[in-house]
Each structure stands twice: as C-alpha cells, then as structure tokens.
Specification:
3-stranded antiparallel beta sheet, single chain, mainly alpha, 462 residues, 60% helix
Length: 462
C-alpha cells in the first residue's frame, strides 16, 4: 500500500499522495513568483514610460515657453548633462577599448542628433504643444522614406497606408483646420518639422554604421562619444540662429556668447533679460525666467526617466511595447496641454478640428503598427524572400540575428538592437543602434546537458 500511495492512489487515511515531490513543487512555486515579479516590473515600467514620455513632451514645451530666447543654451545644457553620466557608465573602456576608426561614425550620429535637437528647440518656441505632438508623428513616414533610400527597406501595404493617413491628419491639422494655439508661426512649425529629417536619418544610420565592424561594442561607449561630439555639433550649428527667416528671434553670431550668459542668468538667478520691446508682433518673445528652473529641471528629469524606462520596458518586455506607449502618448499629451493645472496661463483649449486631426493621426498610427506585425509574420514564413532581420523602425522587438558567414574560429557574430538615450531633443520614438557581439559557437558537454534540461522545463540534477 505504501508503494501505491506514492503513485497517487488514495491511502488508508483517505488522502491522496502528492502528484509532485517537494523539490518539484518548490520549483513550480519559485517559477510562479518569478513570473509574477517580472510581470509586475514590466507593468510598473510601462506606466513609468507613459508618464515620463508625456512629462518629457509637456516640459519640453514649458522649457521653451520660459526661455524662448535661449535656444542654443537649452540645446547645449540638455546635451552636456549626459556626457559625465555616459562616461561613468562606460568606465575606462570608453578610452582603453576605443576603436579610432569608429570615431567618424560616432561623429556622424552626433551631427544628426545635434541638428535634430537644434531645429526642434528653435522651432518649438513658436509651435504649440498640441501641434508639436501631431507633427512629431511625421517621424514615421519620414523614417520610412529615409529607410527606403538608404537601405532599400520594404514595408507592408498597411504600413504605407498608415503613413499616408498620418500625413493626411497633419494636413488637416495645419493647412485645413488651422491651429488652436495663437502662438503658432508657420516658419517655426516648418523648422520644427525639419528637425524630424535628421532624427530619421540618425535612426537609419544607427542600423548601418557598424555592419562592417568585426569586434564587440558596448552601447555606453557609443553613447558617450556621440554625446561628446554632439556638443561640438551644437557649436557648429550656431549659424542657424543667425538666419533672417527667424525674424525677431534672430541672434547675430557675435551675440551668441552674451546670449549664453543671459540664459545662465535666466536659469540660475531667475532674472528676465528681455523685458522691453518684446511680446508684440514683430518683436522678440519676452522672458519668463521666474519658473524657468522648474521647467528646465523638469524636462531634464523626465527626459532621463523616459530613456531609463524605455530600457526597462525593453528588458522586461519588448520594443513593441515601447512603440505602443509612444502611440498612447499623443492623446494624453494633447489633454495635458489643455489643462490649466499643468500649463497655467499657456493652456490651450483644443477645438473640434484638433480632435478630428488627432483621431485621423491615431488611426494612421494603429494601421502602421498593425502592418508592422503582419510584415513580421511574413518574414517568418519559410518561403519568404525577405531577409530575417528585425528592425525597431518596423515595430519589431529588438532581437539577435546571425549575420551571413558569421562563424569564425569557433565564434559567431550576432547583432542586437540596443536602446540608446535620446539627448537634446523631444525623443519622438525610442532610439536604437545595431551593434555586433561575439559569442562562442561551441558548448561544453555540461552546457549542452544543462540547456537540454532547461528546455524540458525540469530542474538540472546535481
């Protein structure tokens, strides 16, 4: 009877023997709590990403509202702050394992990112918050266009349809319905939109830059050198502020140093520098330095949080969830810009035309995302003529893939889309870079045995 009880047959006392032994039951319970903890962390990270992405968008506008005459200063300070942070994250390898031949590639990335930040900050001064949110969605068709030109990437028909619907929504928002924000100026709206072009080019270039590199790369080393070079890109972009099309916002080149000093006094000492002959048509925008430090620190905080939560969502989930959150950010940001509690006197109540435009753009976004899923399934088909490579620009999860002829001397080159920080601009979409890693192809007998047990879902015997 004792032998029968161990097989699950009822014993004399009426109780059945346990179906799992103590060790197996402990494994199941441990697996349950581990999955629960992972799901909880993912949920918290997604909520944090949504809140920080909306806060990043809102405080970007509040920052340019408070310091409208110090675009160069704002662009530079939002870049410089990341240099020591990335240096600390990268550590000594930032210099000891530096590949000199990669410095030009880091510089090209910095040029794209720096130019994008310069144009967005400059154009954001006279581009309403809701319009910024809507124009920002044009990053999708612009990236598609750049991907088709630079890498010959093909998309699903629904992705093209979604991009066309997004463009239609933007046309409705600006050309047909007009803006509900009286501070909108067409030339500055155009400058803000132009900032999307280098941003899209940066995203595509980061998929191409290291394809011919045979070593192993640390993403923190990349971020350090890109942010370092971006400081000099911002300096080289100073002539942009001297263009006549800027009207009263034009800053002569020989006044740039004085403008930076004024920006420093506005931020640190809350002293308005431009208070006379400002605020009217044909005049500069008046300073609002009293709460400039809260706006700037708020933007820096939410920008850093946005980047950190992006990495956490990818770690515990996938890049697809990041793009899903970025879709939800648009309507929530529009609501935030209309809330007096958040925007104060600069709150703008949206018109019905704004809701129509937002609805059209949101429909385009959903169509584009769904098309990305269908494209992914098409690539997984055995008879597919597409090369199997997941790309964040098509709403695929960042994942490793083996390059052709990637095995050399017992090692296999693999590639990963790694998330990068977005410094100095609005952070319209999660940013990724395609980096190579080197792994050992051959496994020891112990490793093969361990992997087999793990795939079977059982504990590895001692």
């Amino acid at each position: 009877m004792g032998a029968e009880s161990q097989q699950g047959i009822p014993a004399k006392d009426g109780k059945g023997a346990p179906l799992l032994g103590d060790h197996e039951a402990a494994e199941v319970q441990t697996r349950f709590w581990r999955n629960w903890w992972t799901s909880l962390r993912l949920a918290v990270s997604m909520v944090g990403l949504l809140v920080s992405s909306v806060g990043n968008t809102v405080f970007f506008k509040k920052m340019t509202n408070s310091m409208p005459n110090y675009g160069f200063y704002l662009t530079q300070i939002s870049t410089v702050i990341y240099v020591p942070m990335f240096m600390a994250l990268a550590g000594p390898p930032a210099f000891t394992k530096l590949h000199i031949n990669l410095l030009p590639k880091y510089a090209v990335m910095a040029i794209f990112d720096g130019l994008s930040g310069t144009l967005m900050v400059l154009g954001g001064v006279h581009t309403g918050g809701t319009l910024q949110v809507m124009l920002g969605q044009a990053i999708i068709p612009v990236t598609m266009f750049m991907s088709a030109i630079m890498v010959g990437k093909r998309y699903h028909l629904l992705q093209y349809t979604g991009a066309a619907v997004i463009v239609l929504g933007l046309v409705l928002a600006k050309a047909v319905c007009g803006s509900s924000d009286t501070d909108d100026v067409a030339i500055f709206n155009l400058i803000f939109f132009m900032g999307l072009v280098p941003s899209a080019m940066s995203s595509v270039y980061k998929e191409l830059a290291f394809r011919s590199f045979a070593g192993d790369l640390d993403v923190n080393v990349i971020q350090f050198w890109v942010s370092f070079f971006q400081i000099f890109t911002n300096l080289a972009g100073m002539p942009i502020y001297t263009l006549d099309v800027l009207g009263p916002q034009k800053v002569p080149l020989n006044d740039m140093v004085q403008e930076s000093i004024g920006g420093n006094r506005c931020l640190l000492y809350r002293e308005d520098q431009i208070v006379d002959h400002c605020g009217l048509a044909g005049q500069k925008t008046c300073d609002h330095c009293e709460f400039a430090w809260t706006a700037v620190l708020g933007y820096l905080f939410f920008n850093a949080s946005f980047n950190i939560f992006t990495m956490l969502v990818i770690k515990y989930g996938s890049a697809a969830l990041c793009f899903l959150v970025s879709t939800l950010r648009m309507p929530l940001s529009a609501v935030a810009f209309s809330c007096p509690l958040i925007m104060g006197a600069r709150a703008v109540q949206p018109k019905m035309s704004d809701f129509v435009s937002l609805g059209v753009i949101l429909t385009g976004l959903v169509t584009y995302r769904y098309g990305g899923q269908l494209q992914h399934r098409r690539q997984l088909e055995p008879c597919s003529s597409f090369s199997f490579r997941r790309s964040p620009s098509m709403w695929f999860s960042p994942s490793s893939w083996s390059s052709p002829n990637g095995v050399v001397n017992g090692t296999r080159r693999r590639w990963k889309f790694m998330p990068m920080f977005v410094a100095g601009n609005l952070g319209l979409q999660p940013d990724f870079v395609l980096v190579p890693t080197v792994e050992n192809k051959y496994r020891s007998p112990e490793r093969i045995r361990s992997d087999m047990y793990r795939r079977l879902g059982v504990a590895v015997p001692d």
